[in-house]
Amino acid sequence: MGGKDAAIVAGGVSFKGGWDTCYRVNLWSRIASRVLWKVHDFAYGNEDDLYKAAKALDWPSYFGVERTLRVNVTAQKSPLRSFEFATLRVKDAVCDRFRDTLGRRPDVERAAPDVRVHAFLEKERGTLYLDTSGEPLFKRGWRAGQAEAPLRENLAAGIVMITGWRPDEPLLDPMCGGGTLLAEAAAMARGRAPGARRDFGFPSLKSFDASVWEGVKREKPAEPADPVL
User: Fold this and answer.
1) For 36-131, which CATH class?
2) Of 131, 166, 136, which is closest to residue 150 (Cα–Cα)?
3) Burial 46-62 (b: 16+ CB within 10 A, else e)
């Protein structure tokens, strides 16, 4: 899809690319959960370090103050005891930077924010990301109802891929509940973009280029027989 220097990192996979790559991966990736834009990494030892690192960024250059905001913090081997307090410190830093620059703070919205800031904390270093996906990418936008034990769509797509199934072969799901495995396989066979019926987070960012996005949407889809999407 245009990504370069792909590498396994804690909690995911990193890659480099332009905005066309970002939009393309959001639109076409069947197995990703989110596409995060790395904007800062830093050393830290406590919550005050988080605040200073987050406030040092020029957040108003990334999104407008009229956009609603949510901050999420995840961690691996972090020495911090309260991730709720860490989340609060990052949120305060972002809002305080807006207040100092523009005299206004963005509103916080937990359920359906325009912009999501993610902080990932390891033992001694932290990373700040802007979420270009918005809602998790497994939410394809086609599901009208939910089965008793729903299977996430990106997990279902991954399961289909590792079976070695090809679109020119019959596919049987003997445990069919909500039909997620079959729906994902059908989308692969038809060459349908998994994100074709949903919205994303990147239009809320100032870096959004509508012409590039329209160009990505007009690209010829991959061959239906290619399951690597």
Assistant:
1) alpha beta
2) 136
3) ebeebbebbbebebbeb
Express each pLDDT in 16-46 by its tens digit. Answer: 999 999 999 999 999 999 999 999 999 999 9
110: Cα within 13 Å, side-chain hemisphere: 2
Element holding 39 (H helix, E strand): strand 36-43
Cα gap 198→193, rounded to integer Å? 10
DSSP secondary-structure letter at 108? B
| pLDDT per position as a tens digit, 57-85 | 999 999 999 999 999 999 999 999 899 99
Q: What single DSSP character describes residue 79?
A: -
Query: Residues spanned by CATH 3.30.2130.30 within the chain?
Result: 36-131
Query: Nearest CA to 157 among 199, 202, 201, 189?
Result: 189
